[in-house]
Design a protein that fits this description.
InterPro entries: Apaf_helical (IPR042197), NB-ARC (IPR002182), P-loop_NTPase (IPR027417). The protein is built from 10 helices and 7 strands. By secondary structure, it is of the alpha/beta class. Strands 1, 2, 3, 4, 5, 6 and 7 form a 7-stranded parallel sheet that branches.
Length: 234
């Protein structure tokens, strides 16, 4: 899987959180990854920052169906400072978990072209989810840029939608009060007002949830949060 990374280590871990509303997206992505081959099998997930693209990709990557369908699984994050050698080394690191491969220290002595040849050699004849395209393989790419998604998957890029109000509230509730959902019912109405101001973005909701989890869980406190968010959006 390929992802462009602009992540901030200070932001909450969206992948580790319980994210509501991704079930239908996950079914679509898994079906496309395991379906019949086309001329060029690149599946893209596009959407604005914080909407959960990487989370969806990770859930697909770890899905039991995907694990059984592909012989090899490679996850590569491409930063804004793209280095081809780094991508190859990440790929070889993933491959080494599945195959008998020589000592990784030997990679430092190899040219980029030799590393690329080694990746191709190790993948030849296998079915895999990887960063390069070969027959029987798939590429799953996440991007914020619609133009990039259309360029690599012009027929049907998968665009992620914002969370609806109910799923937004569930995400906030679960991450403030835990999966048991033992929350004061008088906070539900004001809680939905809070998530409405988050505009359906999971990452924004998780930031607010982290803030609320450290505060007094009272109606007055949550009203203050609504007021502050209203001032920010104004």
């Amino acid at each position: 899987l390929i992802g462009t990374s602009r992540s901030d280590p200070m932001l909450p871990n969206l992948e580790a959180a319980t994210v509501q509303g991704l079930e239908d997206d996950l079914k679509i992505i898994v079906k496309r990854l395991t379906g019949p081959l086309s001329a060029l099998d690149i599946v893209t997930i596009s959407g604005m920052g914080g909407i959960g693209k990487t989370t969806l990709a990770r859930k697909a990557y770890d899905h039991l169906t995907i694990r059984y369908h592909f012989d090899l699984h490679i996850w590569v994050t491409i930063s804004q400072e793209f280095r081809f050698r780094t991508v190859l080394l990440h790929a070889l690191h993933c491959i080494s978990k599945h195959t008998n491969i020589f000592n990784a220290n030997d990679y430092d002595k190899m040219k980029d072209s030799e590393l690329a040849d080694l990746v191709q050699k190790k993948l030849k004849g296998r079915r895999y989810l990887v960063v390069e395209y070969f027959p029987s393989s798939r590429i799953l790419l996440t991007t914020r840029e619609t133009a990039v998604a259309m360029y690599v998957d012009s027929t049907s890029p998968h665009h992620m939608n914002l969370l609806n109000l109910e799923n937004s509230w569930k995400l906030l509730r679960d991450n403030v009060f835990g999966p048991e959902n033992d929350h004061p019912h008088e906070l539900e109405k004001i809680g939905k007002e809070i998530v409405e101001k988050c505009k359906g973005l999971p990452l924004t909701i998780l930031v607010i949830a982290g803030y609320l989890s450290k505060m007094a869980r009272t109606l007055e406190t949550w009203k203050d949060v609504v007021r502050i968010l209203g001032e920010i959006h104004c």
